[in-house]
Amino acid sequence: MYIKGKFVSGQELDEVKEVRNSCGLEVSDVDDNMAIHVVAYCVDEETKPVATGRLRFDGEEYTIDILCRRPEETDDYTDFVLKMLIYQAVQHGANRITAFCPAAQETLFCRNRFQLVTQVEGICTMKLEN
Prior knowledge:
- It is a single chain.
- The chain is of the alpha+beta class.
- 28% of the residues lie in helices and 42% in strands.
- The chain has four helices and seven strands, in the order E-H-H-E-E-E-H-E-H-E-E.
- The chain has a seven-stranded mixed sheet with strand order 1-2-3-4-5-7-6.
- The chain is globular and about 40 Å long.
């Protein structure tokens, strides 16, 4: 398995939406146009988008959310996307990153040094501090 990733933003979100739709997520909001997204690709016989996530900055706080992968793929892809998003936030000067994720992804975020802040109705708020 070979993983390739790229950062996308603005109007280049077709592959982001394709991956989200394959995960059953119909999310597309105002924040999408302002966020930095990562798309991960499985590179084998063909190159196809398999995972995505986004990084938002509201002027004060960096936030990672909507991290997902195609159901038939492994968590290696979401881990790859998460690492790229963390890297991007740190490159922009983030000392703290907030993340919102389903409880099923809590372990993935913890493996990447995030700590659980709260869990409400199956959604975790996580923090990573430098």
